Amino acid sequence: MPNLVDLPSNSPLTEVTYYILLILSPQPKHGYAIMKDVQALSSGRVILSTGTLYGAIKRLLEQGWIKRVDDEASNGSGRVRKAYALTQLGRHVLEAEVARLQRLVSAASLRSMGEPALYEESGG
Amino acid sequence: MRDYPKFLIWLYRVFLKLYPADFRAEFGEEMVSVLSQVFSEAVQRGRGTLWRVFKREMRDLPVNLWRQHWSRFRKEGRQVQMGNLNPASGKTEGKTVSVEERPATWGETLLGMGPFLLAPILFITGFLMTSLFGELKPPPEPILTVVSSILVLVYVIPFLFVLGLGWVKGFPRWSYPYWGIALLFSIWLMRAATPGLRFFGYSFGHDDLWGWRAWSPLALVVVVAFLLSRIRPLHLLTQRLWQDWTRISFAIYGILPLAVLLAFDEVHAEGAYVVALILLLALGALGYMRSAQTWQRILSLLAGLVVTWAAATIYLAIYWHGRQEPWMDSPGNWVDTALGMNKAGGFLVLLLLVPAFLGLLRLLINRIRPLRSA
Question: What's the whole-model pTM score?
């Protein structure tokens, strides 16, 4: 189990990592579902190839942010299919990233409130 | 239309083989399964969609391959430093056994024996050249140019390539004798003159020593290897030397073919015997590469040196006994020859054992400051 000290509190996640963690936060999912959900969540902007997806999955497994679980229910043939679930550490990382993004958005909101005055000055 | 996905999946499986074996074993089938599902969906939308999906896979392939191989390469480096690494946790577990403590593979062994097999091959080439062109005195210029170009292409360039490869790979065990022989050869070449040799339009004069120019090939290899791999191999070099001092002994062992050649300087018709002696050294290198323990490794090198040197001593003692060359004050005798060879052999044995002090130092430091458990 990786140490919580390893939590990268200040380093932003890559877009792919962020989306994967976000998609796995409600429930475990298998590779194909992750791929489709990333595409849907990003409004078709981020489309993963299998190599990119499994490269990211491998890295997240090594970091201990996600874990592998068996997904028997999702397969009609009864064959055990691999699914991935968020770990406690992964959830912490995701929450930290969401909080960071919220701070950024808040800062942008505060800044944008003062913007019209500036435009008026420059425009005037 | 129906067969396209099957063909593309087959093609995808072929490209999948380019990934590192451990990645392939862990995710390969899953990747194929996911891609099959993506293809099934794409095929409903038409051939254009199917090709777009496949093109995306192919477009990302080089970057993904690079990432996985680089990650594997870095992990190997960490394993050298820390022992067995659990990929799931990123932590060392169980008995800390370095990958470097295993015997080398046969491929690595062959590479490690390279410098010792090179000298016999050079001898055979020299013998063939003498047989072919020996009657022509002096040999015509075009023939000399062709022969020297072949020698450079066939021996020097591969040697320099392997030298650079050793650097880029983080100085694995097989690379050390190459560095030993390259360093000694450069030192020797500094004081050597090669009158008449033309190189890039420059013609060497009669007393024109190579001097600093002797280091140019080595410097070129170092610069290229450094640009390709930066500081990491040097970091690995220090780690690996600290872990296994016999590597320095192996580098020193790499200069022994030159020592044998020097011992047989002025000896006539010695070619076949020298080849046999250097092959004995190659056996020592073979034992070294295939050993897993420090004591086995150093014993292999010592055995290779002692047996080769003893055989050389016997031959030279017999050869020089009662023989007088124009440059000699008196005829040679076997006792003086054997004594001289024993002194030189003793010096080489000591030289081979000097790096053991590094091992003793490591032992001492580890006792003072016990290693933390992983």
Answer: 0.53
Could you tell me which residues are beta bridge partners of residue B332? none
Residue A88: half-sphere exposure toward Cβ, Cα within 13 Å: 4
B127 close to A100: Cβ distance less than 8 angstroms: no
A103 touches chain B (CB under 8 A): no
pLDDT tens-digit map of B269-315: 677 888 899 999 999 999 999 998 888 899 999 999 999 999 999 99
Across the interface, whether the CB atoms of A2 and B56 are under 8 A apart is answered no
Q: Which of the residues B53, B64, B78, B79 would you substitute to probe the A interface, choosing the one with the greatest number of A C-beta atoms within 10 Å? A: B64
The amino acid present at B193, given as its one-letter code, is: A
- Matching residue, tokens 């392997």: B162
Does the CB of A39 have a partner CB in chain B at under 8 Å?
no
Tell me how many degrees the CA angle B198-B200-B209 measures, rounded to the nearest 5.
50
CA atoms within 13 A on the CB side of A56: 20
Euclidean distance between CA atoms B280 and B277, whole angstroms: 5
Contact B336, B292 (CB under 8 A): no
The reply to whether omega before B138 is within 30° of 0 (cis) is yes
Question: Using one digit for the tens of pLDDT, what is the confidence trace for B95-112?
Answer: 433 444 678 888 889 989
| ipTM > 0.90 for the complex | no
